[in-house]
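Hello,

Our lab assistant flagged a job as stuck in the queue for most of the afternoon. It eventually completed. Since we weren't sure the result was trustworthy after the delay, we are filing this so someone can double-check. Below is the sequence as submitted and the structure that was eventually returned. Let us know if re-running is recommended.
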Amino acid sequence: MRSTSIRRTGAGVAAVLLVGSVLAGCVESERDGKDNTFVFAASAAPKTLDPFYASDGETFRVTRQIYEGLVGTEPGTVEPAPLLAESWTQSDDGLSYTFDLKDGVTFHDGTPFDAEAVCANFERWAATPEVNQTDDKAYYYGKLFRGFATGPAAESAIYGGCSADDELTATITLDAPFAGFIAAMSLPAFAMQSPAALEEYQDDASPSVLTSAYGTEHPTGTGPFELTSWNQGSGEVRLAPYDDYWGEAAKVDEVVIVEIDTARGRAEALRNGEIDGFDLVGPADVESLAEDGFTIENRPAFNILYLAFNQAQAPFDDVRVRQAIAHAIDKEAVISASMPDGTEPADQFVPELVDGYAADVPTYEYDPELARQLLEEAGVAGTTITFNYPTNISRPYMPQPDDTFNIVRSQLEAVGLTVEPVAAEWTDYLEQVQNTPDHGIHLLGWTGDYDDPDNFLGVFFGQQSLEWGFDNPELFDEVAAPRALTTTDEQRPLYEQANRDIMEFLPGVPLASPVPSLAFAENVEGYEASPVQDEVWNMVEIAD
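-- returned structure --
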C-alpha cells in the first residue's frame, strides 16, 4: 500500500497541531457521558469508502471495519485464514478455486451474503469501465488480474469467470495459474460488497466514482461496524456496531476516526485525552509515551523503504553511478537518525518475512572511498543530482522523510555529489515520481498487503514504469514467471534468483524495514496489531 489522499490547510506545524486538536477536541466534547466510544487518530482521511477503488492504508483502515473478504489473515500474522469463506479447494492445475461460504451472513442492508453475491462482486471487478481502470482507482485488480474484461489489457487478463454452484458454494476460474490468489483475496480491495447497494448507489462508469453516493454515504458490507457519518470537510468518520453481525459483536458503542496528519499532533492528542489511540508513532515519541504510561504496540516490519534511481535521467543510467550511491549510504546512520528502535537495514526489495527472500544477494557495504572512485570512473565526480522527497507525511516505511532525506543527502555530498533538493506535498510528490519522468533519485516504499513476493517485486519491477525509468524485458519476465506456477514451493527459488538479479542490476537502494508503532491509552484493551494492518476493532474495549 502506498498512495494516500492528504488534505493540508495549515501554515506549518502549529497550524496542523491546532487543526488536529480542534478535531479531536470536538470528539472529546461529544464523548461526555459516552465513555464506550473508541476514538482513533489516522494520519489522513479515507479516499473513498468503496474499497475496490482504493489502494491506501488509511482508506483500508476504515473499510476493514465495514467490509470483509472471502479470506482474512491469522491474527498477528501474514498467513491466510478463512473469513467469509469457511474453506476452499484448489484444482490441481491451479485454474479454479471453490469456496464454501459461511452461512447466515447478511450485508448491512439486510440482503444475504451468498454465492450469487460472490459472483456479482467478481463480475463487477472484471467489468470495470475503461474510464476507471486506472492505477489511482482500480489499482489492485488491474495489477493482480493483469487486466479487465475490456480495455487495452483485456487479452492478458486472467479472470475466467465465477459460478454459483449452490447457495453457499462459489467457484472462481482463472485463465492462468496465480499461486498467490488465496493470499491476494485477503486484500481489502477484494472485500465483498452488497450487490443491491451497489446497484442503487454506485455508478462504476462515472469518472467521479470516488465521490459517489455509495462510496461516501452508503458503503455496505458484512463487517462488525456500519457507517453512520463521514464528514469530508474534517475527515471524521463515525461507525456504529452492526446489530446482526455474524461474528463477535463489537464491545464499543461507537468508533470515531479523526484525521491528524502529523505524528507530533497525534501524540499530543493522546496525551490530552482527546483520542484513545493512533498509528505511525514518531520515533522520537515512542519512549516518552511509554514512560508516560501509554501502551506501545509494534507491528512486525512488513515494508521496504528505498532510494530509487530514475534511469531515464543521466547519470543514473550508468550502473557505476548507482553502485557509487549505494556505497555512499550508511544505512545504520540513516536508521539512527530517522527510524524507530528495532529497525533493520534492508539488503533487497522484500522484507525477510516474505517467502522468496534470498539470503545471498549482492550487497553494497558502506564505503565512501569506493563511492568516490566509482564516480571518478564514471566521469561524474562533483556532478549535480536532483533528489526528490515528500514533506508533511509519515508512512510506515518512512516515518520521518525530512530526517531521512537530510542524512542521505549529507552522505551523498560527503562523496562529492552536489544535491539539488526537490520537496513536495505527498499527493503532488506521488504524481511527480510515479507518473512523470521529471525526477532524479527519490525516497519511496511499500507496505506489504499479503505474503507474496509479487506484492513487492511485481509492484516495483513487473513492467516498465516512469518511476524507475528503465526498460529491461528480461528482468520484467523474470519477475513475472513465478506467477504462472501453481505452488509457492515452485515459486520460491525463482523469486530468490530474481532478488539476486535485481540487486545486481541495482535499480535503487533498499534502505530499511522500519518497525511501525501504535500508541494507546492505558484503558484500551483487545487491539491486536497485524503486519499487514488487518486490524478489526470489534474486540477493542475501553476499560473502566
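-- support follow-up --
The delay was a queue issue, not a problem with the job. The result is valid. Residues 2-25, 28-33 have pLDDT under 50 and may be disordered. The two ends are 36 Å apart (CA to CA).
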